[in-house]
Design a protein that fits this description.
By secondary structure, the protein is of the alpha/beta class. The protein contains 15 helices and 11 strands. A 6-stranded mixed sheet has the order 2-1-3-10-4-11, sandwiched between helices. A 3-stranded antiparallel sheet has the order 8-5-9. Helix 7 links the parallel strand 6 and strand 7.
């Protein structure tokens, strides 16, 4: 009896050890933002196999994603490029940028309140230009300075968020504004519904290419915690392959992608997404091309907007 009991205990111990060895590794924690920065991840989020492999989180505020990276809750995340640079500086190299996911999404628009058409940046001289705070304002100021356009009053406090400014544009409360997609499309549709008009006058990406390095207006990127990358290089590489396929799908098939964007919880209106995606410059750029474009963009931003210093070369994860 004692021998039988001993054998049973040995057997149970062996089962326990096998169970412990078979324990699954924690899933990578992937964070993204609702809106344009998150569009490219929609196909990946909606894929059943990816849902088994990763934990996805969608946030409204970039600061929440930033904080998740700082405290180690997030492993990989999509962020505005200036926020990524500031985070790198704040954490002494605690993040690396893996790829660019969004080019320029900003447009200068006019409403029925405009007294003159807007054909170039020079036409803004003497005008009040409403602009969302942070990145849109930094980009607009860089363009005006490089173009030598003076006497432009930039108001980034009355309607500080893109949502607030979109509503003001749609209501005809402002004459000249800078808006990102998909807010341009939302404002145009809303204005049309009550007899107003929103006209897209300038594509700031095209204007940027006139004054700065071609293709260097890059507003969204994918980053990884440095510590996570060092311990999970192959897992990061596998995620990048899946993410690239997702970005390609969204940019190549806006109609199908719009439905996935809504299903994923990244955006609420599929019809607006279908119209906006072709104007969102969704892209996947890695390696040296990523480094060249992003470093050129950050060089034109005020240091305060990117954490006080231009990031060092190790900010750019050129190879895996």
């Amino acid at each position: 009896m004692k021998k039988t009991l001993s054998l049973l205990l040995v057997f149970l111990l062996a089962l326990s050890l096998l169970s412990s060895c078979a324990k699954e590794e924690p899933k990578p924690e992937i964070y993204t933002l609702n809106g344009t920065t998150g569009f490219g991840m929609a196909s990946l989020i909606c894929d059943a196999a990816s849902a088994e492999a990763y934990n996805f989180h969608i946030e409204k505020d970039p600061t929440l994603v930033r904080d998740a990276l700082i405290n180690g809750t997030a492993d990989i995340a999509a962020l505005p490029t200036n926020v990524a640079a500031a985070l790198y500086n704040a954490t002494n190299g605690g993040v690396r940028v893996l790829a660019l996911n969004t080019g320029g999404v900003l447009y200068a628009v006019t409403t029925e309140m405009a007294d003159t058409p807007l054909h170039s940046l020079a036409d803004l001289s003497g005008k009040t230009l409403y602009c969302p705070a942070q990145n849109p304002t930094f980009i607009t100021r860089a363009l005006l300075d490089e173009a030598g356009v003076e006497n432009v009053s930039i108001d980034s406090t009355t309607y500080a968020s893109p949502e607030q400014l979109q509503q003001a544009v749609a209501s005809g409360l402002v004459a000249y504004a800078i808006l990102p997609e998909p807010m341009v499309t939302i404002a145009a549709n809303a204005a049309k519904s009550h007899g107003g008009q929103v006209t897209v006058s300038l594509d700031l990406s095209a204007v940027w290419n006139t004054y700065f390095e071609n293709g260097s207006l890059v507003q969204g990127c994918l980053v990884v915690r440095t510590a996570y990358l060092e311990e999970n290089g192959e897992a990061v590489k596998a995620f990048l392959e899946a993410y690239r396929a997702s970005v390609d799908f969204v940019s190549e098939d806006p109609s199908a992608a719009a439905d996935l964007i809504v299903r994923a919880g990244i955006f609420k209106d599929a019809d607006v997404a279908r119209l906006a995606i072709p104007k969102c410059n969704i892209r996947y750029t890695e390696g040296e091309a990523m480094k060249q474009a992003l470093s050129a963009f950050l060089a034109e931003m005020p240091l305060a907007a990117i954490g006080g210093a231009i990031p060092a070369d190790d900010f750019y994860q050129v190879t895996l």
